[in-house]
Amino acid sequence: MSDYFGDLESRLREFADVRDWGTFHSPKNLSMALIVEAAELVEHFQWLTEEQSASLPADKRREIGHELADILIYLVRIADRMDIDLPQAVDEKIRINGSRYPADQVRGQSKKYSDY
Question: Looking at the whole model, is its pTM more than 0.85?
């Protein structure tokens, strides 16, 4: 795991361990918490136009940053609990997506890879 994610994973594991949260941090529970945080992120954009969503004030952007941090925290905790090297998984997924979505075929389109 990269230095940043390895350090983050260790910090989050220690944070949970000193609070004795290990029994609560099953992959299932962490996944459910992740979805809750993702919903809280979406809530910030609900009913906004595309333009409004792209030009939010600093205080709203800070709140969104906190939601993104919560999402990342849960992702890292799930990866840790499941012994998944998250940066390696991301690199692999980018390679897979590169072959599923060749730039010369999909540029400017938003279809799913199975529709090409």
Answer: yes
